Amino acid sequence: MKFKMSPNSLFAILLRSPWWISFALVGLFSLAAAALLPREYVYAGVLGTFPFFAVGCVAAWRQWHAPSAARVAAMHAQLQAWPWRDFADALEAAWRSNGHGVERLAGGGAADFVLTQDGQALLASARRWKAATHGVEPLRELHAAMQARGAQAGLYLLAQGSLSDNARLFARDHGITVVQGDALAGLLLGTR
Q1: Taking the complete model, does pTM exceed 0.85, yes or no?
Q2: 8 Å CB contact between 159 and 128
Q3: What's 68's DSSP letter?
Q4: Deepest in the core among 38, 40, 59, 65, taking most CB within 10 A?
Q5: At 68, is the pLDDT very low, low, confident or very high (cuts 50, 70, 90)?
Q6: Does position 192 have pLDDT exceeding 50, yes or no?
Q7: What are the phi and psi torsion angles at 124 (to 5°)?
Q8: Which residues lie below 8 Å from residue 102, measured CB to CB, with a gap of 6+?
Q9: Quick one: 55 exposed, middle or buried, by C-beta within 10 A (0-12, 13-18, 19+)?
Q10: Quick one: pLDDT at residue 2?
Q11: Is the Cα torsion angle 7, 9, 10, 12 positive or negative in sign?
């Protein structure tokens, strides 16, 4: 059973925030513990800040290894210039470097790739990555392909344009993860 952190929990927010905020909270709470607690309980109060310290370490590690803003911007520009074959090759290399088995599907279908890892299958649709608007229809097609293949989840990749509200709700309700913007650039930069 996998546990998933709520995206609006304090620790999830701190993981997305600059690393130094967590360490500032450690310092602030430690000072408050020293000032407000009896002397024999100060050590226990300071130890209570350990979760914030751990979150700060994880956030610092993630931010240290994240691609720079300039590299992400360059990848966005490159995504706009790439033809389908180069984009598909880059996706395949990125997924393989993350430990996925990758199978390309015949063109024209609702899905372009089957990703496998730990016995689980995932369908990915990336063909419309340059479309200006993304409605619910391609997501419905992807969902139908997921059901036909018995895939547990799906990915819908887009480099530009926006996803309609109905499409976003459909994706959320049917196990389809939308990968766009900086997340897509980060995926592709992971192999470079």
Answers
A1: no
A2: no
A3: P
A4: 59
A5: confident
A6: no
A7: -125, 135
A8: 92, 95, 96, 113, 114, 115
A9: buried
A10: 57
A11: negative
- Average pLDDT over the chain reads 88
Specify whether the CB–CB gap between 186 and 67 falls below 8 A.
Answer: yes
Task: Indicate if the alpha-carbon torsion angle 128, 133, 138, 140 is positive or negative.
Answer: positive
Pairing of strands 176-180, 153-158: parallel
- Going by pLDDT thresholds of 50, 70 and 90, the confidence category of residue 174 is very high
Q: How far apart are CA 112 and CA 43, in angstroms?
A: 56
Please answer whether residues 155 and 177 qualify as being in contact, where contact means their C-beta atoms are separated by less than 8 angstroms. yes
- d(Cα 75, Cα 32) in Å, to the nearest integer? 45
Answer whether 55's CB lies under 8 Å from 17's CB: no
- The rounded distance, in Å, linking the Cα atoms of 178 and 158 is 8
Residue in the structure block whose two tokens are 């926006």 = 162
Q: Which two tokens stand for residue 78?
A: 């490159």
d(CA 22, CA 115): 36
39 vs 25: CA distance, rounded Å = 21
92 pLDDT higher than 50: yes
pLDDT in tens, 108-119: 778 899 999 888
